[in-house]
Amino acid sequence: MKKDTVTFTDNTTGKSIELPVMRGTVGPPVIDISKFYKETGYFTFDPGFMSTASCRSKITYIDGDAGILRYRGYPIEQLAAKSSFIEVAYLMLYGDLPCASELERFTALIRRHTMINESLKSFYQGFYHDAHPMAVMVGVFGSLSAFYHDSLDINNPEHRELAALRMIAKMPTIAAASYKHSTGEPFIYPKNKLGYCGNLLHMMFSVPSEDYQIDPIAERALDLIFILHADHEQNASTSTVRLAGSSSANPFACVSSGITALWGPAHGGANEAVLNMLDEIGDASQIEKYIAKAKDKSDPFRLMGFGHRIYKEYDPRATIIRQMCHEVLTKLGKEDDPLFELAQKLEEVALTDDYFKERSLYPNVDFYSGIIYRVLGIPANMFTVMFAVARTVGWVAQWMEMISDPDQRISRPRQLYEGTSLRDYVSIERRAGCDLGEK
Ligand code: CMC
Asked: Catalytic annotation on 10?
């Protein structure tokens, strides 16, 4: 029988070694190079992790060439059509869809932890009112590590589960308070009879002096967007959470580092950047100009919400969100939304352009999500916060998976060192090119 290995031959020495090949349930085979350095003296080089599987996982599967995304084996299209965010959260954490009593228990547990410690509120006061809500999120969420650090033993599965529930439950409360801080309105306590997304809308948009009715269309739209954003395997923010967590760091602090990574415009910050870009483009007459800018290598401008490291096909989440845009705008009587029309026109022009075709650049999840957020009354600087609330489920599930993996060890990449190899210390007065003292 053929061995499941690949052979590496060092042409400088003629020495060959066999490298084991690992096979997942689906997806490309993976060459195990963990002993490569020990056996050959070589490191491998892969900046940006273009060809590197950084871990084993059973949570999310993506086939970027075929435009496939599955959570725990379930196609994203089925979950979007039939499931709810809270059910998807359960699926992510525990591996299977819940039965009715499990879902009820899980929902009750999440509800139990929605409040934040009163003293945490004063943290917000340290931020100026125009601070970006993502900056506030990084700080306030990270500070949760101070509240639970002493009672959290990450080697204890029950403690880990409690931390996971707290993170998922408190994130909307912290997100809504970030918004309220920017508007100057009082913070609103969670109302636990509401659903996860309904509660978030309530905490963001209600005020103590008025009755607030949650719009079921808005609640369902948010729930659906959250399902689509819940996880995306080893993306930059999730890898950040895993990397930070690999040192056995406090999970609240690890998730805070995930929020930081998510904020960048190449990642979750793209949804805000798309809206700013559409506002800047203004109308269809400007599209050609901006397409030309995106293609111009001397111009840093990129078409935001376009392109993806993994999808070389239409991002399946973008397909669902674009369809949702039609439905939500129609239900809200805003089917002529000029921004949606502009976005669709921009997509049409880009997808027929050779530059975008040759590079397989398609709309990604962030291209249309902001259009829905905007019609729901969510301001652009809160878009990435919405993403963070949904992705918390993925971060937490991936962190749990990593910590419970018996093979888990600290993540410690190596490097290709290109600096000076060795030199002797020179006293300051003898340094060449220095204008002090004798040369
Ligand atoms: N506009 C113009 N050109 C682009 C774009 C774009 N949006 N995206 C990629 N390219 C070009 C890029 O210049 C390069 O061209 P060339 O081969 O001539 O050098 C080629 O396409 C490959 O791009 P890359 O930057 O090497 O690809 P990457 O996998 O490193 O980056 C990306 C992926 C998502 C960061 C990038 O496509 C991008 O910056 N897109 C815009 C930002 C964005 O929408 N991000 C959200 C990603 S999805 C949600 C999430 O991750 O949270």
From this structure: no
